[in-house]
C-alpha cells in the first residue's frame, strides 16, 4: 500500500517515513475512533460502577439547593458592602461624600440608634486620642504636645457640611492623616453622625430638650 501510494504521488517531499500522508491520516482516524469508543465505555462505567463518586461530585451546581446554609440556598448573597475586584464604586455620596460634585449635606443612609452607637464606638477608638472624648481637641496626644487637633465646637465646623467631615476622614487634613484604609465608608458616616451629636451636646439650649424630658434634667440647668 505504501508503495502504490508512492507511485501515485509526484516525486516531491510528501513522503513520511516511507508511507504517504493518506495512510498516516487513516491510521490516525482509527486511533481516534478507538479513543471515542473507549471514552463511551468508560463513561458508562462511571455512572453505574465504583466510579459513581467521580460522576456526581460533592459540589453545588449553579443555584442548586443546600442543606448546609440556613436559608437553603447554595448561592449566598454577597456580604453587604462587598466590592468585587474592579467593581465600580458608583455611589459617590457613600464613597466620596459628594452630591453632583459638591460636598454632601445629607447622609447616604438613615441615622438610627444602631448607627449612632457604632459611630460612638468608632469615634472613641479612632478620634479620641487627638480630638478628645467630647471633640474639643484635647485628646491625650494633644495633651502630650501634638499640635493642634481641631475642636469640633467652632462655628466653622458646626456649619460645615457632612461631606467636609467625610473628606477630612478619607483624605486627611493638614497634619491629620487619612483614615480611609482603617475606617470603612459606612463607619466614617457613623462617626460623622456621632460628631454631629457631640457638636449638639456642647452647644445645646434647654429648648433643644423635648418638654416632657426637661424635668429629668434635675435642678433646672439654666440655658447657656
Ligand atoms: C493623630 C491625631 C488625629 C487623629 C487620630 C484624628 N485627627 Fe482630626 N485632626 C488632627 C489635627 C492635627 C487636625 C488639624 C489639622 C490642621 O489644621 O493642620 C485635625 C483636624 C480635623 C478636622 C477639622 C478639619 C477642618 O476643616 O478644620 C476634623 C473635622 C477632624 N480632624 C476629624 C477627625 C475625625 C472624625 C477623626 C477620627 C476618625 C480624626 N479627626 C482623627 C489630628 C487627628
Keywords:
two-stranded antiparallel sheet; binds heme C; mainly alpha; Cytochrome Bc1 Complex, Chain D, domain 2; 224 residues; disordered N terminus; 11 helices; two-stranded antiparallel ribbon
What is the CATH domain class of the largest domain?
Mainly Alpha
What is the makeup of the main sheet? 2 strands, antiparallel
Distance between the termini: 114 Å
CATH homologous superfamily caption of the largest domain:
Cytochrome c-like domain
What is the string of helix and strand elements?
HEEHHHEEHHHHHHH
**Strand arrangement in the largest pleated sheet:** 1-2
Compact description:
The protein has 224 residues and is mainly α.
Report on this structure.
This protein has 224 residues and is mostly helical. It has two domains: 2-54; 92-203, Orthogonal Bundle (Cytochrome Bc1 Complex, Chain D, domain 2). The protein has eleven helices and four strands. It has helices spanning 2-8, 21-48, 52-55, 92-96, 113-126, 128-131, 140-143, 155-159, 162-171, 185-201, 211-214; strands at residues 15-16, 19-20, 98-99, 102-103. A two-stranded antiparallel sheet has the order 1-2. A two-stranded antiparallel ribbon has the order 3-4. A hairpin with a 2-residue loop joins strand 1 (15-16) and strand 2. Helix 5 (113-126) crosses helix 10 and helix 9 (162-171) crosses helix 10 (185-201). The radius of gyration is 37 Å and the shape is elongated. Bound molecules: heme C (HEC). The site of heme C has 19 residues, from helix 6, helix 9 and helix 10.
